[in-house]
Amino acid sequence: MIGNLTNEEIEAVLKQNVLGRIGCNDGKRTYVVPINYVYDGRYIIAHSCEGMKIKMMRKNSDVCFEVDEMTSFTNWKSVIAWGEYQELSDKRKRYEAMKLFIDRMLYLKVSKSAMLPSPVEGVEQPHFPSDSSRSIIYRVILTEKTGRFENE
Q1: Measured distance CA(46)–CA(63) in Å, rounded
Q2: Cβ atoms of residues 144 and 84 within 8 Å
Q3: How many CB atoms lie within 10 A of CB 54?
Q4: Do residues 66 and 146 make contact, with C-beta atoms less than 8 angstroms apart?
Q5: Which one of 41, 66, 111, 142 has the lowest number of neighbouring Cβ atoms within 10 Å?
Q6: Are 89 and 108 in contact (CB under 8 A)?
Q7: What is the pTM of this model?
Q8: Interval 55-81: pLDDT, tens
Q9: Which domains does the chain have, with CATH numbers?
Q10: Within 13 Å and on the Cβ side, how many CA atoms surround 61?
Q11: What radius of gyration, in Å, describes the C-alpha atoms of the chain?
């Protein structure tokens, strides 16, 4: 049977997963790339180093986000959401976003761009590398969500 996910099922898929794909478009080309994320019930929160994805989202903040749960080719759930890219520049918001991200990803190996920034400016701490300030921390403000499923 193929069908639509309920709003509650869509929320569950977004909250239970940590790997999705973000799609962006700069007016000339579309770019879709996998990202690690955390969903707090309102925002997709993620991080990245400078690169094509960040440049494109800065140029056009309209993005698409997709996540799948796949048990088999006949048993899966898929959510697609649309929203607006928003870079976090406030030090406190950056810290809170990355704390949420790291708490959710604690059992996984986390990349250098996901390290918590030092809560004290100018003071380097061993668990807060100084180069973490170069990480781009962003969220996607979700404006629309849809989901489909198939099961036997």
Answers
A1: 13
A2: no
A3: 16
A4: no
A5: 41
A6: no
A7: 0.81
A8: 999 999 999 999 999 999 999 999 999
A9: 2-117+125-150 (2.30.110.10)
A10: 11
A11: 16
